[in-house]
Specification:
Layout (H helix, E strand, L loop, with lengths): L12 H26 L17 H8 L5 E7 L8 H19 L5 E6 L6 H8 L4 E3 L5 E9 L5 E4 L10 H13 L5 E6 L9 H6 L7 H9 L1 E4 L13 E5 L6 H12 L3 E5 L27 H7 L1 E3 L3 E5 L3 E5 L8 E10 L17 E4 L4 E3 L6 E7 L4 E5 H5 L4 H6 L9 E8 L20 H4 L11 E6 L7 H4 E6 L2 E6 L3 H13 L5 H4 L9 H37 L7 H4 L2 H26 L3 H58 L1
Parallel strand pairs: 1-2, 6-7, 6-8, 8-9, 9-19
Antiparallel strand pairs: 1-4, 3-4, 4-5, 10-15, 11-17, 12-13, 13-14, 16-18, 18-19, 20-21
Helix pairs in contact: 2-5, 7-14, 16-18, 16-19
Length: about 675
């Protein structure tokens, strides 16, 4: 007789499940408490370009601090409890400040202040220049930063606007950099563009309604900007970098002054243009502002620098074309405009600190740069077009062809053209005989006679030349929003970053350059864009064929009608053949117009179909796949349970059989 097995207490499935749930809840609370205390600033950045990781530029700025910096973060935390989006944005500001402080080795101190209504802190915040945003409840929301150094330096961000969230690290790093470097370098500017007044010119400036270009304001934030009259004999010694922004035609004496500035080791950045659209912008009177020039070039200096820009050539790029309004007569809302380009990282020199951090650049009616033969300098392209580019004659551009006309006649040269280049190396003077005399001069002024003429640069030159000036125009790259009387720039491209990067690089400062292009990278749907571009090319070809057919039909109908006397009826005077032809032409005309409408209506068919497939994948396919996986796992588990039950049943039967046999 077999010995019965010892009975052991068994835990029911219900008790086991409840125990697991209770332990899971305890573990969840414990992990959250631990993470809130110990992992508050911990992050895992999985983006392609590490967009949310503190950059090396910020770390370098903080590491080079020679004196402590205090950042006072004014945040009305109690007021924004009912505004989740603003509360999340404020938390990101707080986290970023905490990250900067954590890598500063105590050199950056953070103080958070909650300016309650009618408190002393609220008065201090308002007096310091912070902006309190009024709510419907009557409360004010403060979300600003006041930075101070150990002396009397002070920098203010009046309101950390959510619209500039992608530029948060740059704004904070620039504030710290300004506190650490209170003495700004001087930038000389020679320009015939309304940089400091906007498109309205001096007339609106005198009325107090001027709106300076945002790029000019960015330059003012980092440098002391000094405008030089466009006729000068010498560049002041305190100017390290000279920016030539679409200057008018300069006199030989002024060209000589720039030439000798380069010979003395000065740095030059030039923005030239064969067709400046911003110069042709209508002013308050409805006409371009008087005195502005359409084209700018410096052939005398550029020859000595080793670069040329043919004044009659304008760049067209089909692959990088921007989308513009198609016109009132078109059924499409947007079309490609090959004269305006949105350049992307693959068009930039990734080894040059000026262009490496950039994500996008908007230009318009740009020129083309080429190295000259026998130049002593090294010509390095830093901005180029795409391979699907061509050269357009300036006269055709001036004729204002429609975007569709440009697309129909586009013939790619299958090569990249240079839009911006860096020139480095020794330079010889463009004036080997010395300073040229003006018509009313017999000899050079005394103050210039004492200065030695240099025929060669005392050190290798560092010159950057751009074949476009329209990139300064706010309309090309930024959406300006009014916020409580202030102008907030929401960039759509990195035009400002490009200009400031170039100036800072020539000044010798690179710490902020790595920060300016760190907004979330533009990740276009390239497949969708290719389909759209192919569909539009087919549309334009078919549209042109149908339009020609319609015009020919209308012309023939007009000929038949012209054969009729005035006031006569067609049926009375036309022959049977003519009447049959007219009816056929009218049917053909109606058929042509119907076909044209069908072509225009089918333009987006491929794109819409792809969009529908993507929507299905995003909304339906993934849940279906997850459901199938769970169904498969459930079926597998049931199969295993059934197999175990069958095995246990067979074991019991075998055991019983053995017991019976033994008995």
């Amino acid at each position: 007789m077999s010995t019965p097995e010892k009975n052991r207490p068994a835990i029911s499935r219900a008790v086991f499940a409840i125990s697991v749930l209770v332990l899971s809840a305890i573990l969840f609370v414990a992990l959250n408490t631990f993470s809130n205390v110990s992992l508050q600033n911990a992050r895992l950045d999985l983006t392609e370009r590490s967009l949310f990781t503190l950059s090396d530029g910020t770390r370098n700025i903080v590491a080079n601090l020679r004196e402590p910096v205090t950042l006072r973060f004014y945040y009305s935390e109690d007021v924004v409890t009912e505004i989740p989006s603003l509360r999340a944005h404020a938390q990101r500001v707080r986290d970023m400040l905490g990250e900067i402080a954590s890598v500063s080795d105590g050199m950056v101190r953070i103080e958070e202040i909650n300016p309650e209504a009618f408190s002393v802190e609220e008065d201090k915040a308002s007096d310091a220049g912070l902006t309190g945003v009024p709510l419907r409840t009557g409360d004010k929301v403060f979300l600003g930063i006041i930075g101070t150094n150990s002396v009397d330096g002070r920098e203010v961000i009046s309101f950390v606007a959510p619209e500039r969230a992608t530029y948060l690290e740059y704004d904070l790093a620039r504030l710290i950099f300004s506190l650490a470097n209170p003495e700004k370098p001087k930038l000389g500017v020679v320009s015939n563009l309304p940089l400091d007044t906007g498109a309205g010119g001096l007339l609106l400036a005198m009325e107090g309604r001027s709106e300076p270009f945002m790029i000019y304001q960015e330059l003012q934030a980092s440098f002391i900007v000094e405008f030089l009259e466009q006729d000068f004999d010498r560049v002041p010694n305190e100017i390290k970098v000279l920016a030539l922004v679409h200057p008018k035609e300069l006199s030989p004496q002024t060209l000589y002054a720039i030439d000798q500035f380069v010979m003395r080791g000065g740095r030059v950045i030039a923005f030239l243009d064969p067709h400046s659209e911003v110069s042709l912008t209508a002013g308050p009177a409805g006409k371009p502002v008087q005195g502005y020039t359409e084209a700018s070039n410096l052939p005398v200096l550029m020859e000595s620098w080793g670069v040329e820009m043919v004044p009659t050539e304008v760049l067209a790029d089909r692959l990088r074309a921007q989308r513009v309004a198609a016109g009132a007569r078109q059924r499409r809302q947007l079309t490609d405009y090959v004269l305006w380009q949105r350049l992307v990282p693959e068009d930039f020199d990734q080894d040059d600190p000026i262009t490496a951090p950039l994500d996008a650049l908007h230009i318009g009616s740009a020129g083309i740069l080429r190295p000259t033969e026998g130049a002593s300098t090294t010509f390095t392209p830093i901005v180029q077009s795409s391979p699907e580019s061509m050269i357009l004659a300036l006269e055709r551009v001036k004729a204002a062809p429609s975007p569709d006309d440009l697309l129909r006649s586009f013939e790619s040269a299958d090569q990249r053209f240079t839009v911006a280049a860096r020139l480095s190396g020794p330079v010889t003077s463009a004036f080997p005989e010395g300073r040229p005399l003006a018509d009313d001069e017999e000899e050079a002024p005394i103050e210039l006679q004492s200065s030695a003429h240099l025929t060669e640069s005392i050190e290798d030159a560092n010159i950057v030349v751009f074949a476009d000036s329209d990139l300064f125009d706010d309309r090309f790259w930024v959406q300006v929003q009014a916020f409580l009387g202030d102008r907030i720039a929401v960039p759509t491209a990195d035009n400002a970053a490009l200009v400031v990067n170039a100036v800072e690089n020539l000044m010798g400062s690179n710490d902020l350059i790595s920060l300016r292009g760190r907004e979330p990278a533009d990740r276009p749907f390239t497949v969708v864009e290719d389909i759209r571009r192919d569909a539009e090319a087919k549309f334009l070809a078919e549209e042109q064929r149908l339009q020609q057919r319609i015009e020919e039909t209308e012309a023939r109908l007009a000929e038949l009608r012209a054969e009729l006397p005035d006031g006569s009826s067609a049926s009375a005077l036309l022959t049977d053949a003519q009447e049959s032809e007219m009816q056929s032409l009218q049917r053909e005309l109606a058929e042509g117009r119907r076909a044209l409408r069908d072509v225009q209506g089918d333009l987006r068919r491929d794109v819409d179909a792809l969009g529908a497939r993507l929507a299905f994948i995003n909304m339906a396919l993934v849940p279906i796949l997850v459901g199938l996986v769970w169904a498969g796992l459930g079926w597998t588990r049931r199969k295993r349970r059934r197999a175990r039950a069958e095995a246990a049943g067979r074991a019991i039967v075998t055991s019983n059989s053995s017991t019976g046999g033994a008995a």
